[in-house]
Amino acid sequence: GPGQAEMYAGLQELGVANGEDLKETLTNCTEPLKAIEQFQTENGVLLPSLQYALPFLDLHGTPRLEFHQSVFDELREKLLERVSAIALEGKVEERYKKLEDLLEKSFSLVKMPSIQPVVMCVMKHLPKVPEKKLKLVMADKDLYKACAVEVKRQIWQDNQALFGDEVSPLLKQYILEKENILFSSDISFLQNFFSPSPKTRRQGEVVQKLTQMIGKNVKLYDMVLQFLRTLFLRTRNVHYCTLRAELLMSLHDLEISEICTVDPCHKFTWCLDACIREKFVDNKRARELQGFLDGVKKGQEQVLGDLSMILCDPFAINTLALSTIRHLQDLVGQDTLPRESPDLLLLLRMLSLGQGAWDMIDSQVFKEPKMEAELITRFLPLLMSFVVDDHTFTVDQKLPSEEKGPIPYPSSIPEAFTKFLQENRIACEIGLYYILHITKQRNKNAFLRLLPALVETFSDLAFSDIFLHLLTGNLTLLSDEFALEEFCTSLFDGFFLTACSRKENVHRHVLRLLLHLHHKVAPAKLESLQKALEPTKQSGEAVKELYNQLSEKLELRKPSPAEVTETPSMELPLPTVPTPASR
């Protein structure tokens, strides 16, 4: 077929006979057998010792093709080894000159499957493949596919669109993987979204593939960062910020100094990475991080955009927020005010830089967001007063009560707290983490007291996937409370169901929780929840699927009709009539 002709087309240019030549010879000759023999001699392996060996192989029924193929394979292996050796020996200019000459000679055969690996190997070892050859490779889908990543990098760095096409499916896959973890059917307070260490996360398929595609190429690294910034702006999806940090740290693990030394965020990210590993910002690292922030020079403010994206990574926010809650508890013990703690102020500074990432990159105004004084003078002391309420209550419980009866747990929330959660992003983030903290402590009283403040929060943060993922995990610690009507009404009717109909993700999280805890919920409550959570026409596949799973589980729990009819007779204990024998 035409494919064959095209495949061997390159041979003629090199003065090597091909099938066409043989056909021509045979059509124009008088003695075909002689012609074939002559063709074999002229184009066979020119080795005197073979003259006698070949007829011997013929006697053994070994086809000439098989022999030539094995010689060819052997030679190709030797040639591939030789090419790789040339790439490492002698003066730089000389070795590349040799490889370029080799490429010139062999490139016309690039379509021959048997020769292709050699041509590809030569290109792989050339730091700069001639532009013309790159264009030919790029124009041919199969050649492009067969190329080594070293060659593709040279193509990509001048073809952002093509590189984008390669990277795009990987980024989609990455976001999907994150969402699958947040909606996973395993609910536990021990294992959650934030459990894997940074090192483990960087071993993920997407990060590894991107690292491999970038190699040491700063231009490609910059392109990926540009894609991530653009997507973050377009979608507000914070997982792109995680990937930005993971990619840099993956290159750091491989000690790719060509890139790490030119990324101005490298040392900051490295230090923050250690904090994320410990899930805590200790004093020594806090000083280091502060040094980086204070060290941003006039005229280099643009680096704040990058730093803010690193701090917007949910793993960073999680670490900063957990550290903030720990600091507040320590301050209660030390009788110190938040404004007197430089460590706490630094945590807040980094939280607001991270939370302001989208606005900064969108507006291209690179300066640190101003911290609201009220956050420090009013909101944090409020949180500390909750901690004090808990201590007081616990101590009161232990004191012998003198006629005064038990002291009730404070049930009202200061209006200021609710207002802060609605209007201030940082306050809201810290408030939510405080609620996760009391849930993890199984502090049901404090949980029910603060829960009503979550119905309306800043940009609906209390209904975000990360918070709901963590909350559902921590609620498994309060599983025994689900038997109580009052607890369920507060949690479901008072919180979850207020958003289910307008937010698909909340619907999913409630169903996840019930799939996990349905056996703990009071039967009457379960029935009304099953009605309230029924999918609508607008519901997505995930909701319908979860709802069906739940319905199946509840079906299995219902006693069968046979059991139901027999129960009355079982309820009356039968009088024990002594048998005559036992008298």
From TrEMBL:
Give the source's domain of life in one word: Eukaryota
Stored InterPro entries: COBRA1 (IPR010405)
> Region Disordered: start and end of each range?
557-583
* One Pfam match: COBRA1
Please provide the Gene Ontology terms (biological process) for this protein: negative regulation of transcription elongation by RNA polymerase II
Q: Name one GO cellular component term.
A: NELF complex
Q: What is this protein called?
A: NELFB factor
Q: Which organism is it from?
A: Brachypodius melanocephalos
